[in-house]
Design goal:
GO molecular function: oxidoreductase activity
Number of strands: 17
Shape: globular
Domain Enoyl reductase (ER): 10-304
Helix content: 25-40%
Order of helices and strands: EEEHEEEEEEHHEHEHEHEHEEHEHE
CATH class of the largest domain: Alpha Beta
Number of domains: 2
Strand content: 25-35%
CATH superfamily of the largest domain: Medium-chain alcohol dehydrogenases, catalytic domain
Organism: Streptomyces coryli
Largest sheet: 7 strands, mixed
Pfam families: ADH_N, ADH_zinc_N_2
Distance between the termini: 11 Å
Protein name: NADP-dependent oxidoreductase
CATH architecture of the largest domain: Alpha-Beta Complex
């Protein structure tokens, strides 16, 4: 099979298209013909060696944890799916090596769910990691109907899904973004505010009594600003501030969860959740996809098509 891989830790410049043996399919796994693979910041952080202190890696290293595709073979005791099934997955295994930037990927069934019929292959590939991150962050802060939720970086890949998921729960959403993304946020059901100096005051202008919960999808001073706006700091969750727990909130590292992923799929098919794909590039343009992702100006998701 063809895949994008690195021979050692490196950057976008070190990505190469290579021919590798087809993946082995262990018990409890299925083999997926990849239609599209989502691009996430963790892909290039892993490839740079940034996760080496906490996660085993092997080489050649194929990046990617997001996938949409078709099951072509099942391993022993993988009864949840059959050949021909269309699936999505957050295919994070216990070690990093055989990722989704490839024509084929083997995936534990615990990481998969049915593909939403309402989404294209490209949209579906952008849903798993970002969608689960937003979904599990909302769960962590107990976001529910009637709450006012502040979402930092609301127009990004995770944030735009978080807005929709919070709205689907019946929450009021205030989302930070640059001015050029304000109409986009309104289309998702959020009330936009410009990020940067004076943010707390702009949020207070919309919610004079503060907000019930806050989600930080950008880092920087987002958690510190949120502490001045929430009634209870334990209702702050961050995916970017490693000191969030010391500040009274939660640090969220997304987990593969088939039930949560199935819930996201159901919301998409119910018309309550969609994925905005900002860029869809061919697999062999993975390096360019990383550069775009590193700029941090994407509205929604970047995906690779296979």
């Amino acid at each position: 099979m063809k895949a994008i891989a690195l021979q050692q830790f490196g950057s976008a410049d070190d990505l190469r298209t290579v021919d590798l043996p087809d993946p082995k399919v262990a018990p409890g796994e299925v083999l997926i013909q990849v239609k599209a693979a989502g691009v996430n910041p963790v892909d290039w952080k892993l490839a740079s060696g940034g996760l080496d202190p906490i996660m085993e890696s092997g080489f050649p290293l194929i990046p990617g944890w997001d996938v949409s595709g078709v099951v072509v073979r099942t391993g022993f005791d993988a009864t949840e799916f059959k050949p021909g099934d269309e699936v999505i997955g957050y295919v994070r295994k216990d070690w990093a090596q055989n990722g989704t930037y490839a024509e084929l990927v083997s995936a534990p069934v615990r990481t998969l769910a049915r593909k939403p019929a309402a989404l294209s292959w490209e949209q579906a590939a952008g849903l798993p990691l970002a969608g689960l991150t937003a979904y599990q962050s909302l769960d962590r802060v107990g976001a529910a109907a009637g709450d006012t939720v502040l979402i930092h970086a609301a127009a990004g890949g995770v944030g735009s899904l978080g807005v929709q998921l919070a709205v689907a729960r019946g929450a009021r959403v205030i989302g930070t973004a640059s001015e050029r993304n304000h109409d986009f946020l309104r289309s998702l059901g959020a009330e936009p505010v410009e990020y940067g100096e004076g943010l707390a005051g702009r949020v207070r202008a919309l919610a004079p009594e503060g907000v019930d919960a806050a989600l930080d999808f950008v880092g920087g001073d987002a958690v510190d600003i949120s502490k001045d706006l929430v009634k209870d700091p334990s209702r702050i969750a961050s995916i970017a501030d490693g000191e969030a727990e010391a500040k009274g909130g939660h640090y969220v590292w997304v987990r593969p969860d088939a039930a949560d992923l199935e819930a996201l799929s159901g919301l998409a098919d119910a018309g309550k959740l969609t994925v905005n794909v900002d860029h869809a590039l061919p697999l062999d343009q993975a390096a360019e996809a990383w550069r775009l992702n590193q700029e941090g100006r994407t509205r929604g998701k970047i995906v690779l098509t296979v």
